[in-house]
Amino acid sequence: MAYSIISITPKYAQQILTWAYDPPYDLYNLTSGDLSGLLKPDYRYHVVLDEEGELVGYCCFGDDARVPGGDYDQGEPVVLDLGVGLRPDLTGQSYGKGFVGAILEYGSRVYNPKVFRVTVAAFNQRSLRTFRTLGFNDKGLFTRTLVELEFIQLEKPVQGETSER
Q: Do 140 and 74 form a contact (C-beta atoms < 8 A)?
């Protein structure tokens, strides 16, 4: 499947707010209070559309992809944090590799990092499997304070870059 990635609009942000993931993935459900963050230019949110122009997911680059408590000493322009969200009815159907692959290609072309970094809830084996399949390696484990939930940070050098940083 071919994907196109464009900057988020208020219309797409409103659609994303209606998405409801089943437990335990409901951690990723957004509320109306998240609307301003989705539309904040500094958070670099984008939507991912399929060949028919249908909204299938979203992504963000930079600070809003970070989870409090993680090790983020190294940042841009060397390391680019990435957050992704696939529409709930499409999860668990093997769309992840192509979906995330398109986002990585876009992020590489637009932001030119040396390394991509993602932070994934440790229970989210589907997402972890997708990122590991795409060449991401575990770099650390931490517990997010307040919610007491474990997260794993993974990194992947951009193609053509070395893994040293």
A: no
